[in-house]
Amino acid sequence: MVYKSFRINFIIRIIVLSATIFLLFYLVAKKSLYFTASLTFIAIIYQVYEIIRYVEKTNRLLKNFLESIRYSDFTRNFQVQGLGSSFDKLQESFNAVITDFQKIRAEKEEHYFYLQTVIQHIGISLIAFHRDGKVEMINNASKKLFQISNLKMIQDLKSFSPDLVDSLLSLKHGENTLIKVNDNDDILQLAVYATEFKINNRQVILVSIKNIQYELEEQEIESWQKLIRVLTHEIMNSITPISSLSTTLTTILDDFGENNTNRFEEQDLETLNEVKMALETIHKRSSGLLHFVDTYRNLTKIPKPNFSIFQVQKLFDNIHRLMEEEIKRNGIECEISINPESIELSADEQLIEQVLINLIKNSIHAVEHTENPKIELKAYMNSRGRISIQVNDNGQGIIKEVLDKVFIPFFTTKPKGSGIGLSLSKQILRLHGGTITAHSVPDERTSFTLTF
């Protein structure tokens, strides 16, 4: 292996070159061996070239090493064994650097894979894009929210919501906004937060989008329940003594009048009767108010759902049997559709049945003055893969200004309505982790959709 040593090999080459140069001078001094001198000169040039090429072997190794780093090719190993201890150390250093780069690259790939997994797994929608709308990254939650498989430009979301596109393109670093979107039968309240940063001279906007419709509804219902508890408590405390006192005073006046009839003049008896009538009116109205307040207590006393799995077909059959006579009596056409027919629901069957009966009664009232009245009860899987039950009618409908208020407790459009039915329905759906929404085109179509 000695002949492969770089140092010994180089010394031998220098000695041979020196001997050749000496030979050249000797031949030139003879002045008669020009041809041999020419061949010797060519040999010297060749030896110089070989020495230079041999010496530049280190440069070639270094060049290959740097190219491996430049092009991230860390699969190569540098073999320069047998050229001496200095080259052995050079080989060790090259390969050690390559190994370090391999480790760093593996760690970066693991880190990248970890972040990608987190981004794709997280339930909040994330989108990274440029100011011109070009999308760099979109996670699975966003694809599910917008019902898309891919997104190249933010402007492509205009079919979903033009307001959302305008907000995304105009949001600045640290800003947030709330956008309401009507997506078929769903109402989405999207909370959007934006942050902006710079990567490799590129301005990137990262936005998080979360549907907080359920949270808003839950907070709203809890606020109404707290208000109702306070109001009913205070009203009951105030009205109960009035009702009791009015009854007591009426009894006293009755006894007093019977025992002292001969002592009163006709005018006094008329006054006594007027007082009794006033007390009876006070008692009647206070009793009615107590009944009214007690009715609204139901909004805060909904039983906990007893979940079970049942077929929607069975639920519809039960409701149809219960409402069939009233529907026929009013000359209403009733249509039932289930797609697919095997849909099963995990819920409290009695509570959901109560909600649907209430909605059907509202529809019956809505189509009273409609020609060819029709009510449709349907169940289907919506575009987001959730079970939806819908009650449709072609009645007078609900105007836009009123539509957002129909689920508010105490609010009603019926002359004799209590304003409790739809509020109660909304709370029942909330206990099931679902929602109830209303859409209406007056005198054409009104829909109430239960989504689970």
Automatic annotation (TrEMBL):
It comes from the Bacteria. Its EC number is 2.7.13.3. Keywords: ATP-binding, Kinase, Membrane, Nucleotide-binding, Transferase, Transmembrane, Transmembrane helix, Two-component regulatory system. SUPFAM superfamilies: ATPase domain of HSP90 chaperone/DNA topoisomerase II/histidine kinase. SMART domains: HATPase_c. It catalyses: ATP + protein L-histidine = ADP + protein N-phospho-L-histidine. This is histidine kinase. It comes from Marinifilum breve.
